[in-house]
Amino acid sequence: MCDLEKCIELLLTRRSIRRFKDEEVSLDIVKKILDITRYAPSAKNRQPWEFIIVSDHSIKDKLSRIHLGARPLARAPLGLVVVCDNEIAPESYQVDCANAAMYIMLAAHALGLGTVWIQTLRNTREIQEILGLPPNKIPIAILAIGWPAENPAPKPRKTLKDLVHINKYGNKLL
């Protein structure tokens, strides 16, 4: 277990990385990240996720054109697609696999890699076609991953008093 300060630092220093070094990410590192990700929480421990490692340039290129926010994938050494089975966890698959995506991002950051979340839900069918996914396998996130070529500053965050309510909505934290 990391000491408290190091754990907090890991959480507070993760950033969305959109520019990557032209340097390979080894399969061993990716396997380590995904092995850690298996421990993400899911409702009733159903673990409805699967992962697709995308290193093929033509597939990355197709995925990078699904919308403007996907462009970092074209320049990343690889992508990881979090795929969820909506038959295994019909009520919770989106949240379950969002948890898995967050575990990927945190594990990658702990290993010195950078990631950026690429939204997929408005392009589900297109991504299913590109990746050959059956209808019950829903792409929840694409994560561009690689060695960071940038070090972005933290973005502004809302204050706790703007976000926190006590007991009922509207009872704001002072």
Please give a structural write-up.
With 174 residues, the chain is an alpha+beta fold. The chain has one domain (15-163): 3-Layer(aba) Sandwich (NADH Oxidase), CATH 3.40.109. Helices cover 36% and strands 17% of the residues. It has helices at residues 4-13, 27-37, 57-64, 72-75, 93-110, 124-131, 160-163, and strands at 49-54, 78-85, 114-119, 137-146. The protein has a four-stranded antiparallel beta sheet, with helices on both faces. The radius of gyration is 17 Å and the shape is globular. The two termini are 34 Å apart.
Number of strands: 4
Question: Helix- and strand-based class?
Answer: alpha+beta
What would you call the quaternary organization? single chain
CATH fold assignment: NADH Oxidase
Describe the secondary-structure layout.
Layout: H1 4-13, H2 27-37, E1 49-54, H3 57-64, H4 72-75, E2 78-85, H5 93-110, E3 114-119, H6 124-131, E4 137-146, H7 160-163
Antiparallel strand pairs: 1-2, 2-4, 3-4
Kindly summarize this structure in a few lines.
The chain has 174 residues and is α+β, with helices and mostly antiparallel strands. The chain has helices at residues 4-13, 27-37, 57-64, 72-75, 93-110, 124-131, 160-163, and strands spanning 49-54, 78-85, 114-119, 137-146.
